Amino acid sequence: MMRVLCLLVAALTPLAAQEPFCVEKGRPVPCKPAQRQKAAVPRIDPQVSVASATRSPWLVSNGWLYRRNPDRKYEIDAREGGAVRAAAEAIAFSGTVLIHAGQAEAAGLAKLRQAAARLPRVDLPEMADFEFVDDGRAVAGEILNLFARRNMLARGVAKPSGALPVIRIGDGELTGDLARNPSEFAYAVRQKLGDDSRSLRVFGTEMAIVRVLSDGRTARVHAVNYSDQPLEGVRIRVRGSFTQQAAYAGDAVEDLVQDNGFTEFTFPEFDVYAVVDLRR
């Protein structure tokens, strides 16, 4: 009877909780108390994907949110899964977030922390093809979200700098009515700018969001996989002629070639996160 009782008590004793994983400005750090806003667990929402007219997967992501509000602190409850992806997304998009994780993802988070520790600190500007005038409204935020999910390199600004083409709700065919459907608005912007002028193209998947930082001599390419399966053979085309590579998460890239001012390469396979530095 005593042995049975001891086994029952052991079975009812909860497992040791996994410590939260914290990222500050894209770097894993010890967690500190702070006022934080809730953010979603990054994932693919199958219900929205099924309902989509384009049948494209609906990626629930926070990368655009971290870029829109770089000084804001967030909190994600990923105890039921998705903690490694949430941490990878925060690292890739320079987020500041506390992530509650389940014990099952402890090893994955430890591996990600090690990869982030190997990543050299760099001060590179974010690559962008156009400036989007962000007036702070929810619809503008959703448009920024769509740009990011479609790997369109937009820089949200309150006031245009004049350095890049400007996209503004209400200009020409980009009407306020069109903006009520952010997906259609993003597509119209893509048609307006043309794919040939894009500094980033991603081939072979709709499940990944890519961020590029570059000063023309060095480029850092982050890729986050939002699906639950590893991605294989993802081909990236990025502006700039680069001949050297150093991978810090994921395998070394393959088939690195230069073509008319662009560099193309392939991520042969990555699970949740890949990052590579390219140099001239």
Care to describe what's here?
It is built from 8 helices and 18 strands. It is of the alpha+beta class and 280 residues long.
Features:
280 residues; alpha+beta; Immunoglobulin-like; 3 domains; 5-stranded mixed beta sheet; 4-stranded antiparallel beta sheet; 8 helices; 26% helix; 32% strand; globular; disordered N terminus
What's the SSE blueprint?
Elements lengths: L1 H11 L8 E4 L2 E3 L7 E2 L4 E2 L1 H6 L7 E2 L2 H6 L5 E5 L4 H10 L4 E5 L4 H13 L11 E4 L4 H12 L4 E4 L8 E2 L8 H4 L2 H12 L6 E4 L4 E7 L3 E8 L5 E9 L4 E6 L4 E6 L2 E9 L2 E7 L1
Parallel strand pairs: 3-6, 6-7, 8-9, 8-10
Antiparallel strand pairs: 1-2, 1-7, 4-5, 11-14, 12-13, 13-18, 14-17, 15-18, 16-17
Helix pairs in contact: 4-5, 6-8
Which residues sit in consecutive blocks of at least 5 with pLDDT less than 50? Answer: 1-15, 49-53
Output the number of helix runs. Answer: 8
Rg measurement, Å: 20 Å
Strand/helix succession:
HEEEEHEHEHEHEHEEHHEEEEEEEE
User: Beta-sheet strand percentage?
Assistant: 25-35%
- Separation of the first and last Cα atoms: 72 Å
Placed side by side, the strands forming the largest sheet appear as 2-1-7-6-3
Please tell me the total number of domains: 3
The counted number of beta strands is: 18
Put the structure in a nutshell:
26% of the residues lie in helices and 32% in strands. With 280 residues, the chain is α+β, with helices and mostly antiparallel strands. The chain has 3 domains: 17-118, no CATH class; 130-197, no CATH class; 200-279, Golgi alpha-mannosidase II (Immunoglobulin-like).
